[in-house]
Amino acid sequence: MNNSIKVWSIVAIAIIGTGLFFSQEDKPVETLATIRILDSPDTVNSWEIAQKLTGRDFLAEEGIKLELINSVQSTGGTQSLQALLAKNIDFAGSSWTSWINVISSGGKIKAVVGRSVRSKDDPSFTWVVLNESKIHTANDFVGKKLALNVLGAEVDYVMREYLKQNGLSIDQVQLVVVPAAQQEQVLRSGQVDVAAIGPPNVNMALEKGGLRVLFTVYDVRGDVLTYGEGFREDFIKENPDTVKRFVRVYENSRRLVWEEFQKDPQRVKKAVAQIYEGKGGNSKLAKYYRPTHSPEHPYPNDNDIQWWLDVWEKEGKLKPGQIKPSDVYTNEYNSYYKK
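RE: above sequence
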């Protein structure tokens, strides 16, 4: 065999053996950018779980490199979007209300994926009181202190909408911003009357007993996808192939995790616990882990966002038609999406 042919044969075998075999359309059309994302001891991403379950590095398979920016305890996704706008990171997520708030103020950001579907079994933020509390209905909220983890995000506006649906206004209660990890403590110590606690903290709090549920995000909104993740528009414009490949990693990972969870949820939770431990986080949170993929609601759609636009227009925070759902999100970079 010709020596040059031997060399190329060996190279071909080596490439195939490493799994780094791209079809013509999969070849990078640009120099892939490194993506900076926030990371913390209590953050577990789908691609991390997928790698723990399969041994495959989904990021490396797509040529994606991440730079992890360690974050201190945050009060919510609003701060993540602020870091995104400030170009301290390149990818961030928050509830749709935060996205609308930033975009209405001129921020050039766009969500490219969505998650956190609220359902009866997974209602998200839950408003709780002590068992002995005299608060039972919306009217009992008047004059009381309510703990939220952030203002201007989903939990804030769901609270406002709940009060409005019951003939009250936000001015009739006192909102107190308390980091998520401290909400149960301030409620049990009597520093606040009501706490809006999100998962998994609310699951742990309710298991301890002594608390009573008043209502949830699901009670106000019903089944809906409430959380978007994305980039600045300049990053998308400059790095479209990077965005497309990262979204593919994101979607492949969470679909795999969802499928494995249906087969053996304890195996997935064990993997999540190991990731928490490796980061120095709270491995007990793994007990409450739920996959972020929903086969019934896999992508953002106009209805998820239009509901909030209508609320803001009624409150006078937006002019009619000032923002469209397409200004907030796009499914263009999601290879799974079909119109």
